[in-house]
Specification:
Layout lengths: L12 H13 L6 H8 L3 H13 L3 E3 L5 E3 L1 H30 L2 E8 L2 E8 L14 E3 L4 H8 L3 H8 L6 H10 L2 E4 L6 E9 L5 E10 H4 L3 H21 L1
Helix pairs in contact: 1-3, 4-9, 5-7
Keywords: DNA-binding, Transcription, Transcription regulation
Protein name: IclR family transcriptional regulator
Pfam family, one: IclR_C
């Protein structure tokens, strides 16, 4: 590792020192003594900054008490990826709408809701408008299925409580890589959704098309799953580039 006085300085000393510590932890967990040696900083300084970074969840402690990168960094990384997701969604959703003739959306989970963060509406005829910013239930609909299906066990169990879908349905979603719903969230409407993944492989969003059952039929996945999955793959690839 490179000592701190050989690194580029921003001119803001305390931030530079905190960054040195994070840089060192990128290689893996480290004890206080190892951080002191790696950064070249005084032991009291390293301890004070490492504890402060722990308070803000930028640093954590492992079972041996060593310092390691904290969960907040992963959350910030996901947020940055989600911003790239929104930027890339416009062209992909427009293309999806044009191919299927149905409204298309991207949903992201926020707490107990799924939120529409991008959409492309049908230009003519009946519109099933879901404006950007709309909050919908995580208990019904194909996008909710996608956003729940790959959660860890505890969140999966919680997501199934009072849901319109079942564990068996979510197992099918994971197996085939897409979800469909017919009258699940709203009577008379159907939808198809597929997962968008971060560079680490985590499902961070769902791409959907939605419309009346009269057009999408009671087997909407049979008609549109392939093209919806292709759109999701395009957005996943955009996050990697």
């Amino acid at each position: 590792m490179v000592e701190h006085n050989e690194r580029t300085s921003s001119g803001v000393g305390v931030l530079d020192k905190a960054a040195y510590i994070l840089d060192c932890l990128e290689a893996g967990p480290a004890s206080l003594s190892q951080l002191v040696e790696a950064t070249g900083l005084a032991r009291p300084t390293v301890h004070r900054l490492a504890v402060a970074l722990t308070h803000h969840r930028l640093v954590a402690r492992d079972i041996q008490g060593r310092f390691m990168l904290g969960p907040r960094l992963g959350e910030l990384s996901s947020a940055a990826g989600e911003d790239r997701l929104i930027a890339a969604s416009g062209n992909v959703l427009n293309q999806l709408r044009n191919i299927t003739g149905e409204s298309s959306q991207v949903y992201r989970r926020q707490g107990d809701w799924r939120v529409c963060v991008a959409s492309a509406e049908r230009p003519i005829g009946l519109r099933d408008t879901i404006p950007v910013g709309t909050q919908l239930s995580m208990k019904a609909g194909s996008a909710a299925q996608v956003l729940t299906a790959w959660e860890d066990h505890s969140r999966l169990v919680e997501g199934l409580r009072n849901a319109r879908f079942t564990a068996t349905m979510l197992a099918a979603v994971r197996r085939r890589g897409w979800a469909q719903s017919v009258g699940e969230r709203e009577r008379g409407t159907a939808s198809v959704s597929a997962p968008v993944r971060s560079p680490s492989g985590k499902v961070i969003a769902a791409v959907s098309i939605s419309g009346p059952i009269e057009r999408l039929t009671r087997q909407p996945g049979r008609l549109h799953a392939e093209v919806v999955c292709k759109a999701a793959a395009q957005l996943t690839e955009a996050l990697r580039s």
